[in-house]
Amino acid sequence: MRAPGAGAHGSADVPPPGAERPAEHLPTTEGTMATTTRRRASISDVARLAQVSVGTVSNVLNRPDRVAPATRDRVLTAITELDFVPNGSARQLRAGTITTAGAIVLDVANPFFTDVARGIEDRLDEAGYTLMLASSDEDPEREARYLRLFEEHGVQGVMVVPATPDLAHLEAARARGLRVVLLDRPSPSDTLSSVAVDDRAGAAAATRHLLGLGHERLAFVNGSHSIRQCADRAAGVRAALAEGGLDPQTALVEITIPSLNADGGQTGTQQVLALNERPTAMLCVNDLTALGALRALRAADVPVPSGMAVVGYDDVAFAGELATPLTSVRQPTHQLGHHAADLLLRPDDAVEHVTFQPELVIRESTTGTG
């Protein structure tokens, strides 16, 4: 069962923040709780540092207009110094009735992340946990807001597909005692566990497939390189071109789109079709953008694959069901989510990095019907 996060799929039914947070607990693999060595700051800690009552701190958090400006500033300074996170679920935590984990993905409407979330949910359900799920929409500020909200609601840990290479906010949450697992991204840190797929290998395999079919000039409809998956897939394409004896500077046209969805893919493909020297094959950063690419090619009366071969990435459920079945790089989505949740639920605090290998699934969008 998925417990919705506010702003994600509804609002969680929690009391207002301000109640004292008990000593921090973390999940074990069987859904029991293990106390960490570092306790999060409580409302009592804030009151003690600011030399006010707990009720005054609560008023600053919930009814700041009732507190004198000088006192309010003193409390806010204490909150900042202690890195205090108000816990909106304190009453339920004291009663032992909440066992919740959070997940923040780029876009839950993308079938890839839907399948990953299902894997997370299945593993959490085995341990008696529920899932709070949110989309960052590839926006680092939105991601940070959800991370803070999840902490306030007392989640035991969070799995995040980072929208930016800067992981400082996740490192800070980890330092506060929150378990954090990077999802669909290898971790550069020795303090954050991660579960990922080798995106360079997947993109390289797709590129080699196109080169093997005789294509020598390719387009890659991609997202911003600030998203690690986009950067790694671009690197994989370029490496395979160089391996095949082609200069990536002349053999590849990379089109950057603002949104990794079908509309973005359609817009990117229209740019490809407007080129004076048109490529003969396209790689798309995911299957949603490939769907938009096929839409644009159909509108321009460009046959697939004879006029333009198309490769997607993720191999989501619809990829093989399209009018022209889509060649795509398959990722073990359910496994990815299941293993991320498994790392989050470990009774120890060991850091682990897991990398899965993708698989190229060849269909008619590159090979035709013959």
From TrEMBL:
Q: Where is this region: Disordered?
A: 1-39
Question: Keywords of this protein's UniProt record, alphabetized?
Answer: DNA-binding, Transcription, Transcription regulation
Q: Which SUPFAM superfamilies match?
A: lambda repressor-like DNA-binding domains, Periplasmic binding protein-like I
Domain called HTH lacI-type: residue spans: 41-95
* Keyword field contains Hydrolase: no
Recorded protein name is LacI family transcriptional regulator
Q: Give the species this sequence originates from.
A: Isoptericola cucumis
